[in-house]
């Protein structure tokens, strides 16, 4: 889709007296986010400082260094790990002569690329506009979109102009658009709520798959439900909830929902905009928390996901932890994770190992729900039967 390949320098900020690896990890993740967005990362620069300069983000020496690096590496984009204020973006762009975005802007851009359904698109646009509103400068050019040249909200933002009047008109336009989008999202959410209530009346228990982005949630849904959800080695492949009916080995029917993944410091604009999608987890009888057990960051990912669940009010939903990618995971790490989480089930959505254990654990947890859910309203899916007996 993108007409050009952006070349980016990543800009990290390391606190003094804090060891290096954490910073490298977060820049690795930033690089993966950039790759997901089709951006080539050509270099990295880390500033060691207690806190960023409130006006310019970088000190003057570091700013010069960044400008030279951008120049030498023929970069046209700088992606900052931290959150930048509108003034900091301006100061950096003026000092470096390249486009500057922060991590939130990058994530919003990825969401924009991956949104498929009209609900997903509306939610993403809402989040983008919430991000853009305080960053409007009263001049014509899109702000959160990095490359697409697509201007969120249509006319208004893209119009060249100057002065407070122009700015006020743009703000008003944005707010109006945001109101319309919120209403659209609300309508879809209401429809989903009706379906959910019908299922609840029929006592069909619901299981929501949740977890860090790229943990293998969609791959697991495909395994358990015989679905064909998009599985991709990119971050935030899935944005729209996908619901499937599944049967346990002994014939208990439940719904399994795949939704948007989480990431450290998920932009609050996205959490707000995606609240109705995240509601799928809040309303679930059980959260199937999928972890990429092969990641060196698995422990941190578990904590992040639980933190987001707390933030959206889903911490009361019982959790079944799934240690996925067992085929890749380092045995020592796997042993450590299992010791720390005795109730967890190790599986591989790729090879199928551990899936029978998972089906058994799911069944046990669903049986334990009260009031007792429906039994045998629908025969076990063929795939579950076939794999359950193999
Ligand atoms: N080796 C291995 N790879 C896996 C396993 N499960 C998933 N993957 C791979 O991990 C990547 C991400 O899988 P997805 O199912 O798309 O992950 P997700 O959690 O749905 O990701 P998002 O929707 O982007 O948040 C894909 O490349 C999968 O093929 C597994 O058990 N073992
Ligand atoms: Mg997915």
Description:
The protein has 390 residues and is an alpha/beta fold. It folds into three domains: 7-108, GTPase HflX, N-terminal domain (Rossmann fold); 115-183, no CATH class; 204-389, Rossmann fold (3-Layer(aba) Sandwich), CATH 3.40.50. It is built from 13 helices and ten strands. It has helices at residues 20-36, 60-72, 86-96, 103-114, 118-132, 163-201, 217-225, 268-273, 275-282, 298-311, 331-340, 355-367, 382-389; strands at 7-14, 40-48, 77-80, 99-102, 206-211, 242-247, 253-258, 286-292, 319-324, 345-346. Strands 6-7-5-8-9-10 form a six-stranded mixed β-sheet, sandwiched between helices. Strands 2-1-3-4 form a four-stranded parallel β-sheet, with helices on both faces. Strand 6 (242-247) and strand 7 (253-258) form a beta hairpin. Helix 5 (118-132) runs antiparallel to helix 6 (163-201). It is globular and about 65 Å long. The model is unreliable at 140-145, 147-161 and 376-390 (pLDDT under 50). Residues 211, 213-219, 231-233, 235-238, 261, 324-325, 327-328, 348-350 line the site of guanosine-5'-triphosphate.
